[in-house]
Structure formats: C-alpha cells, structure tokens
Amino acid sequence: MTDAPAEDRLASLAAELRAECAAEIDSRMVGHFNDRPWLRQAFLKVPREHFVPDQVWWPTPRDDGMHHVIDRHERPRAWLKGVYRPRASLITQVADGRVLPEDGPTDAPFTSAVSCSAVVVDMLHYLDPGPDDTALEIGTGSGYSTALLAYRVRPENLVTIEIDEQLADRARHTLASFGLYPAVLAADGEFGDPAHAPYTRIISTAAVREIPQAWLDQAAPGAILVTPLYGPFGHDALLRLTADGQGGGEGRLVTGVAFMKMRGQRADRSFAELGWPTVDGPWPAYADADYRVTVGGGRQQVRIC
Ligand SMILES: C[S@@+](CC[C@H](N)C(=O)[O-])C[C@H]1O[C@@H](n2cnc3c(N)ncnc32)[C@H](O)[C@@H]1O
Exactly one of 12, 27, 112, 115 is catalytic; which is it? Predict the structure, then answer.
C-alpha cells in the first residue's frame, strides 16, 4: 500500500529540488538557460524523477571502487536528492543489463544512464531546436532528454532511437504517461532513421569515435548535429556541427563531457585513423584553441586553428 501523505511530501520536495537545480544551472556559465527560455520552462515542467528507475547506481565509486545502489523505497529523500544533483548522472544499466541492482554494488561498465541535468541542458542549448524542426535523437535511455525536446519540437516531428529494447519500451511508456508520443524506435541509432529524414536537428547522447555517415546523409542543409566525440583528452568533447545536406559538415568542439560509447563504437581505434592531429605536449584546453571538425567524403578531420 502506498503512503499517500509521504508521496505528497516527496512530490513537493521534488518541485523544490527541481527549482533549486534550475537555479544552480542558471548560476553557472555552462548552464545556458539564459538565452533559451523554452528550455528553462521545459526543465521546470518535466518531473525528472518520473524517468528515473527506483534503483540506480551512484556514478561516483566508493573507496573500494564499487558503485553502490540507491533505492527509492529504502532512502526516498536521498534518491530524490540524487535525481536533482545538477552534475550527477544516475546509472540505470550496467554491462548491457547482465548485472542487476539486486546484485548490489558493482564495478561493471556503465551502459545506460539518466544524463546529468546540467549536461542535458548544455546539449539542448547547443542543439537550439525550434518548434518547426524535425529532430532525431540517438540514445533515448530513460526518455528524460526526449521529454525536454518534445516540449519544443512537435512530438510528431521527433524520432528517438534506443538500441536496448527494454529501455526503449520503458521510455515510450514513461513519455506516454505525460501525453508525449514521439516515435521511440528500438534499433541501432548509428543508422539513423531514413523513414523520417531529412532532419534539421540531430542529437546523440552516446559518444562516437567517428560520426556515422548515415546521420549526415539524413541531415538537411544547415541542420545542427550535437554529439559527444571521443577524443584524446581523457574525456569526450561535445561537437556542434552544421551539416551541408550533402553528406558532410563542419563544426567545433564546444566543451568537455563524459558519455558512454555508442554500442558499435566501443572498440579502440587509433586517433590518427580517426582524423586527429598530433600535438607536441599536452592538448590545448577548449578555451585556448579552436578545434574544428570537418566531415566529408567518408572521413572526419580534426584541426586546431
Ligand atoms: C547516456 S545514455 C542516455 C541518456 C538519455 N538521454 C537520458 O537522459 O536518459 C546513452 C544511451 O545510448 C544508448 N545507445 C548506445 N548505443 C546506441 C545505438 N547504437 N543506438 C541507439 N542507442 C544507443 C544506450 O543504450 C543508452 O541508453
């Protein structure tokens, strides 16, 4: 039996924490709410906690290197505070689902998460979708970022692809519970979705080593593509690229992020093969260098300008 007054108290705590989280994102330069009022409104409207499973792994390991499980039923307030920590992602799947929360703390690799709210806001800021855009999202996960997008882009013009069928089903169901009905496809997002192309906005929430050609082939001229690009920095870089509508495009690395890899791009490859230059000494910080990425003719190239 549910304890209705306790659930009400948690719902009002959730609303308070959501507002605090938005204020904290606002106070940071990287938050980027300020010139995207729709994004702040969507953030305040979408109850992130409804997208987070009852049991999640905490992203920061304990001293023994293991990630512990936070259970909503055992520690509802701690779980909720975790949901609204702007810089914390919540791990929802490890080892492609072969390890379960009931197995306890784990050091198995993360394979799905509800991304940090500050990073979701950053990515949607750079994507800058408008109400008339046709958008493709790769990596639905919980459906949380899909929900924010669906408050800006018409759901009938929004396609989201998740490779894990169970995650796709759960996200579809959660989105529908808020009356949001984008196309949620259980498929390999590296191939995009030609049926609904061309897209004017493409966003990936899984990191790639190499931009899949299908995304550029399905991009309209001038389309914006935002994706974490794995690089030699020890973390991923967020790439914002403008497509030429002919299978190519050019863009810049705008900030550092950390994402799990696209399933088909987990295997290591040399940076030279992926078009990265060589540098003498450490890689310059994003603030000190203009990292330009060009894609075309089946090849990507990174230059430091
Ligand atoms: C960081 S998580 C998703 C975050 C999501 N936006 C959220 O806030 O819940 C990345 C997701 O990409 C999915 N993924 C990995 N490779 C994929 C692929 N080839 N096609 C589609 N989804 C993929 C993973 O299963 C995972 O759910």
Answer: 115
